[in-house]
Design goal:
Blueprint lengths: L17 H6 L6 H8 L21 H10 L29 H6 L8 E4 L4 E4 H10 L1 H4 L3 E3 L5 E3 L2 H6 L10 H14 L21 H14 L15 H17 L4 H17 L7 H16 L6 H7 L6 H14 L10 H8 L6 H12 L12 H15 L7 H7 L3 H15 L2 H4 L1 H6 L8 H13 L1
Antiparallel strand pairs: 1-2, 3-4
Helix pairs in contact: 2-10, 8-18, 10-12, 11-12, 12-14, 15-16, 15-17, 16-17, 17-19
């Protein structure tokens, strides 16, 4: 049973930082959550108890939007070609009933954004056309300002225009994969293999099981460009919420599978619906609640979650959000996550404990990286394991590793480089993950990686 006495509640939420964002748009939103979850400071601002779920046309929402987005972000069509439409407004939601309207995260009844102070009104089509027109200015890191001078794009502009990373494929890679398959595939279980006599490993069906998991990771892949369709959210906001979810996940002592499924549910939901900033944290905690029910034997109760949120949202809020999110995802939450693939790859080294443990830390750092939102979990597991072997002094990626991972070294190197890049400033890029794995319980994996990076740079 979760012990409330040993846990400090979250003293602030994303919504609690709204006023700060209005006054200073350049301030990192991480401070809003960190000051509450880590230092137990008082709530930054007293928020309205019942905020309208769909209030994207309110004056406050427009102030946030204008403060954060000095230039409109890039706009892309949905990754799913069946969903090519103006994502900022879901017109089919207009005639929803009262019960469903209460759990909508965006109100679609108004097709304009109005600032009462300025008296300006922007039609949705005009808004999107201006964002598309601005795309040419933001695709490079240098753009021309209103005075005709060349200015360097801000870090936020570049980050919001990220391109997803994916493994390369060519004939040479396919030949290496075929060679690994021919050498190590066994239609009949090897009696000398320890796994053969272990009923839990079900070696007779292992290949079929992982083939099916590879199908699921493609089926439940989120739209890598969904942030371009969000009006108020940005990648830094996502990173902040995930950082908070990692803390919540750690305090409840949940399984790694639960965390990865939580992030997948959030990303897939945001791929289909537009969410306001003041409901973003509700999406995160509801996704955690769904994932815990799916993965855990004993999951946190509603009272536990409400307590951790310091009653910012009620039991009713979480239940309605959970119902709406599940319905939006059509009850499809069987995303496999990277952990089964990580265990599978470690078989190539006879389930060596050290590289697999270090890979868990490297793998968890990927959840905050925008370029890896839609990356296959099997590829992420391979990249984390590949890098962990290098850090531990083994540069060997044999055909056996290729067979059990499904990826060659040439496919993994770009991913491993990105993971390593993010680990160079770990305490800033993914603070909660870094702190979590700095603990002795996790064998100080983050410290090992830090020391290795320093040794290679000197």
């Amino acid at each position: 049973m979760f012990d409330r006495n040993n846990v400090q509640p979250s003293r602030s939420t994303l919504a609690g930082g709204i006023e700060i964002l209005e006054e200073n748009a350049d301030q990192e939103v991480e401070n809003v959550l960190y000051r509450g979850t880590q230092k137990g400071m008082k709530r930054l601002e007293k928020r309205q108890r019942r905020v309208a779920l769909g209030d994207v046309t309110s004056q406050k929402a427009n102030k946030i939007h204008n403060a954060i987005h000095n230039k409109f972000h890039l706009t892309r069509n949905y990754f799913d070609k069946e969903n090519i439409h103006s994502p900022a407004i879901q017109k089919e939601q207009k005639n929803t009933g009262d019960d469903e309207r209460n759990c909508l995260l965006v109100d679609s009844s108004d097709d304009s954004f109005t600032d009462e102070e300025q008296g300006d009104e922007y039609d949705i089509d005009d808004l999107l056309s201006r964002r598309i027109k601005d795309q040419q200015l933001q695709t490079s890191e240098v753009y021309e300002d209103s005075d005709g001078e060349m200015q360097e794009a801000s870090e936020e502009d570049v980050e919001n225009a990220v391109e997803p990373l994916s493994p390369i494929n060519n004939d040479e890679i396919q030949n290496e994969l075929d060679k690994a398959f021919e050498k190590y595939f066994q239609s009949v279980p090897n009696p000398l293999d320890d796994d053969t006599n272990d009923v839990v490993m079900v070696v007779e069906y292992a290949s079929d099981i992982f083939y099916y998991l590879r199908e699921l990771e493609v089926k439940y892949r989120p739209n890598p460009y969904y942030m371009q369709n969000q009006i108020e959210l940005t990648w830094p906001f996502r990173r902040t919420m995930i950082d908070w979810l990692v803390q919540l996940h750690f305090r409840f002592q949940l399984l790694p599978e639960t965390l990865y499924l939580t992030i997948n549910i959030v990303d897939r939901f945001l791929s289909k619906k537009t969410v306001t900033l003041n409901r973003f944290q509700l999406v995160g905690v509801s996704a955690l609640f769904i994932a815990a029910k799916f993965e855990e034997i004993n999951c946190p109760t509603l009272d536990d979650l409400v307590y951790m949120l310091e009653n910012t949202y009620s039991r009713d809020d979480i239940i309605k959000a959970e119902q709406y999110m599940i319905d939006t995802l059509e009850f499809e939450i069987g995303w496999p996550g990277p952990m089964p693939f990580l265990r599978r790859i470690s078989k190539a080294d006879d389930y060596d404990f050290e590289p697999r443990t270090l890979a868990k830390y490297l793998l968890e750092t990927t959840i905050v990286e925008p370029r890896l939102v839609a990356a296959a979990p099997s590829w992420l597991a391979a990249g984390a394991y590949f890098l962990s072997k290098i850090i531990l002094g083994s540069n060997d990626w044999s055909l056996k590793h290729v067979f059990y991972s499904g990826y060659t070294s040439s496919q993994i190197v770009p991913l491993a480089s990105l993971i390593l890049e993010n680990c160079k400033n770990a305490s800033r890029r993914h603070h909660s993950v870094w702190k979590k794995y700095f603990d002795q319980k996790h064998y100080r994996c983050s410290q090992i990686v830090e020391e290795w990076i320093l040794s290679t740079e000197t």
